[in-house]
Amino acid sequence: MAMASAACSCTDGTWWVYALPALLGSDTLCAHPALLAGLIFLATVSVALLAWATSPGGPAWTNGRGRLGVTPIVGPRGLPVFGSIFALSRGLPHRALAEMARAAGPRAKELMAFSVGDTPAVVSSCPATAREVLAHPSFADRPVKRSARELMFARAIGFAPNGEYWRRLRRVASTHLFSPRRVASHEPGRQGDAEAMLRSIAAEQSASGAVALRPHLQAAALNNIMGSVFGTRYDVTSGAGAAEAEHLKSMVREGFELLGAFNWSDHLPWLAHLYDPSNVTRRCAALVPRVQTFVRGVIDEHRRRRQNSAALNDNADFVDVLLSLEGDEKLGDDDMVAILWVKFKSIAFLACLTAHTSQFSTAHTCRFYSFVSGCRLFPEGKKKNKALSLKKTYCTCI
């Protein structure tokens, strides 16, 4: 009923746009092309404004799907054409969304609709609603950004549409990469990476007296990922190994920046060839050949190595696993390049987070022990003793 009344009001309000050319006459319009173009522009703007004004949630919700349920979804309309895209460009997005939900009323906290250009979006601040949204199959597919599509991510597990292909990738990853037996088989490699990291830290400490932990943690994380995914480790202390590792890190860093950059054409497709402040298209076109050359070289090397021994053991890396797949699970080279590149980038991202966390916890532990070494228990101050006990517990946890 609400949809019908909205459609009627929209149609009644735009009748004058179609009646105006009839009043002016065809001869007048043919004689004045500028007037005809102005009428067409006026009609388009009028219809767009009326559709925006009658659509809670903004221009991306103009087809009325925000009112299909028993309870309509509330939300800010934003601006015509752009929606709430500028509200999200100021400050932290999650705080901007929380402020928008507060301004839209109490119902918006449970579920709020808004538009980011042509992209319809919903946000929930209610745990029960968020749980239902995340568990519903309607939200199983992940929208593919333009940068992700150009960087071959559309064929990888992170962006592939829900279906048989995605389930096959998930089964291969859970069975051959993250299974307990496979993780345990790479334990000697992780121990070697840890020992090499400690030796490099000790050498830097002996040479300069101070140590920058982040490069050592990142190098150890990189070697751990390379060993489990590609079966290769770099000696970052040597010239060739350090140069190759730096080349790989530069590709990963560029890919992260492209995926994280806000691309206006993802939400306003008509801007694709007009406005690209982050140069996403040009940078993707430059990065993809480098990635394909590197990953295809790794695949070819594994193929040559597998000609001598076709058996797959527990120490095999993820490239060997993909090459050993047969039948319906067999993948093409393009799919393997995309999967290996995305798998490497995903684990590298987690490794970077681990490196930052390890750096923070190590520094905080050193500060705590320097505090404890000069601390004495105060018999008259139980609160100080309690605070010290809490710090000891925290230190044990980290």
TrEMBL record:
UniProt GO MF annotations: heme binding; iron ion binding; monooxygenase activity; oxidoreductase activity, acting on paired donors, with incorporation or reduction of molecular oxygen
UniProt keywords, alphabetically: Heme, Iron, Membrane, Metal-binding, Monooxygenase, Oxidoreductase, Transmembrane, Transmembrane helix
Top-rank lineage group of the source organism: Eukaryota
Cofactor needs: heme
Pfam families reported for this sequence: p450 (PF00067)
Family: Belongs to the cytochrome P450 family.
PANTHER family: CYTOCHROME P450 78A7 (PTHR47946:SF6), CYTOCHROME P450 78A7-RELATED (PTHR47946)
Protein's name according to its UniProt entry: Uncharacterized protein
Organism: Zea mays (Maize)
Lineage of producing organism: Eukaryota, Viridiplantae, Streptophyta, Embryophyta, Tracheophyta
